Structures are given as C-alpha cells and as structure tokens.
Amino acid sequence: MIPVCTPEIAARIRFAEDLLSQPLLYHSSHPENWSVWARKARIVLRNGSLTTGFDSVMNLVIGGLAGLGVALVQRCMIEDELRSGLLVAPLPIRTSTGRGYYLCRRRSLGPHMAADRFEQWVIEQSKPRT
C-alpha cells in the first residue's frame, strides 16, 4: 500500500504528519488500511482523519486523480498513473496489509497440464510491468 495524490497536493506534504492535514481517501471495505500505514509511518491518525470512502479501488484512484485527497492503494493498481505523473507518491513509506490472492489446487488430483498453464499465466500477469 502506498499513499498517492496529485502533484499539487504532494507539494504540501514533506513529512508523514503532513498527511493529517489532507483529506484521506479510503476503500470502504478496508478503512483499516490507513491505520496499518500510519503505524509503519509512526504517526497517529485522529478520529475523523478518514474523509471519503470508495467502494472500489478504481473509484478510489479516480478520487485521487480528481484531487479529492490522498488515496491509499496498492502500487500495482496505479503504475500507469505514477509513470505518467498524474499521481505521485509524496512519501516513500510503503506497507503491506498481509492480504493477498492465492491460487489453490488439490494435490490429490495430481498434475494437470491446463491447470499448470493457467498457474504460469497468473504468475506472469502478477509481475510488475517495466
């Protein structure tokens, strides 16, 4: 997870504490993500720090692009926006929630060529683009 915002908002952020004066945008299914990030940044969020929740990552990203505040998102979801400069990471502090996606297969079924190919495809798709 990484906080991102427009370059205009980022210009007001030098330290982690500076985020507390900005609207913090969050995923409504995971509002605790900001607390996880704040612990890593060694800051304390105040009650009411989170301002606007979005029900999907895409909407959260759009809120960030629209300049509504600082969004906390997975870096892999905003690589194009970071590359283009539409969004920037005002601070180098990143963290993980520990959540993820898992591909599971029954060992009792043994090897399966189609499942093996699908597994390799998923792994390739999950690699960061350069």
* Rg calculated over all Cα atoms: 18 Å
How far apart lie the N and C ends? 19 Å
Count of DSSP-assigned helices:
5
Overall CATH architecture of the domain at 2-84: 3-Layer(aba) Sandwich
Strand content: 5-15%
Find the CATH superfamily of the domain at 2-84: Periplasmic binding protein-like II
How are the strands ordered across the major sheet? 1-4-2-3
H/E element sequence: EHEHEHEHH
Query: What is the CATH level 1 assignment of the domain at 2-84?
Result: Alpha Beta
Instruction: Enter the CATH topology name of the domain at 2-84.
Output: D-Maltodextrin-Binding Protein, domain 2
Class from helix and strand fractions: alpha/beta
Oligomer: single chain
Q: How many strands appear in the DSSP assignment?
A: 4
Instruction: Give helix % range.
Output: 25-40%
Shape: elongated
**Uncertain residue segments:** none
Reported for the largest beta sheet, the result is: 4 strands, mixed
Roughly what is the average pLDDT, rounded to an integer? Answer: 91
What report would you give on this structure?
With 130 residues, the protein is α/β, with parallel strands linked by helices. It has a domain of 83 residues: D-Maltodextrin-Binding Protein, domain 2. 32% of the residues lie in helices and 12% in strands. Strands 1-4-2-3 form a 4-stranded mixed beta sheet, sandwiched between helices. The longest helix has 14 residues. The protein starts with a strand and ends with a helix. The mean pLDDT is 91.
